[in-house]
Structures are given as C-alpha cells and as structure tokens.
Amino acid sequence: MPAKPPAAPRAAARRLVTVAAATLIAAAAAPATLAYAFPSATVSPTAVAPGGRVALNVTGCGTQVARVTSTAFGEARLTPGNQTAASLIGSATVFNNASSGAHRVVFECGGPGGERVTLSLQVSSGAARGGTGGSIGSMSPGQIAVGGALTAGALGAGVWVMRRRAAAS
Question: FRET pair for 21, CA 20 to 30 Å: which of 86, 106, 116, 132?
Fold first, then answer.
C-alpha cells in the first residue's frame, strides 16, 4: 500500500490553486472595470472660427450616450461610434455670434449627472483668410512694388549672365 503524502504539501498546493483562481478572476474583471474608470475626450479642431464645426469624441464612458455642453455651441448628444460603445462620437456647429476666446466644453457620460470630462475650445475672432492665404493682407502697395522691382532685377541679371556665358563659348 502506497504511503500518503504529508499534509503540508497538499495544503500548499491547495493555497496555490486558490491564489491562481483569484488572480484569474481579478485579471478577467480588470479590463472591464479599467476601461470605464477614466473617460477621456477630444474636441477637434481645438481652435475654430464662429460658424465652424467641431468633432466631439469621448471614450471610456461605459454608456450608450453622452451629452456635451458649451457656451460656444450649446448642447450636443454623442452616440456610439462602434458596436461596443467604447467610443461615443458627434459634432457641433459653433454659434455665428460666439465670442472669441476660450470656451469650456463639458462631456457628461450618460447625460446630466454622469461622470464628467472638461476641455477647452478656442474660438477665434473671425474666419480664416482665403485667396492668397493672407500672404499680402498686411503689405502696402509700396512694399509690393519694391518686391516686384527686386524680383525683376534678379531675373534680368540672371538672363544677362547666361547670355554672356553663351557669347564667350
């Protein structure tokens, strides 16, 4: 008849199995709880002119809906960007009469009273310049004339040098 193993190794093995099981349970639960522990949000672009649109995104809410409020655009609702609702997305149009400067943007997971994330949106004083991209907006006609004369002089000197080389050959 074989001898029974001592009781101490059996107790140690049982403790090891218990600790391993507890670790597996904690590891399985951790991603689900950590994913929704700290929501993070983005506003893109972070600076916009009145009348412009911004994209709103929040992740880690753990809900199917979020509310976003700001003095720049009022209220917007965010909806799931994918089937798991890991990312809630939406957009908003900045009021045409929004004052320039920094505006708070408050994301609320699940609606009013939910977990909050606050960001800042910079509203500029006007729309971006079009056409020449604003490259000549602050130049006087005299500055433009001097720049044109220097450019014409450089082109003329280049032609003169090239013709002298051709004649010398």
Answer: 86
pLDDT in tens, 108-159: 988 777 889 999 999 987 655 444 545 555 667 777 887 888 888 888 888 8
Q: Are 121 and 46 in contact (CB under 8 A)?
A: yes
Contact 62, 115 (CB under 8 A): no
pLDDT digits (tens, 9 = 90+) for 47-65: 999 999 999 999 888 888 8
Q: Is residue 117 a contact partner of residue 101, using CB atoms and an 8 Å limit?
A: no
Q: DSSP of the chain, one letter per residue?
A: -PPPPPHHHHHHHHHHHHHHHHHHHHHHHHHHHHHTTS-EEEEESSEE-TT-EEEEEEES--SS-EEEEETTTEEEEEEESSTT-SEEEEEEE--TTPPSEEEEEEEEETSTTS-EEEEEEEEPSSPPP-TTTTSSTT--HHHHHHHHHHHHHHHHHHHHHHHHHHHH-
What's the pLDDT tens digit per position in 8-49? 666 665 665 565 555 555 555 544 444 445 789 999 999 999
Distances in whole angstroms, Cα of residue 158 to Cα of each of 87, 117, 148:
60, 61, 15
Euclidean distance between CA atoms 54 and 89, whole angstroms: 11
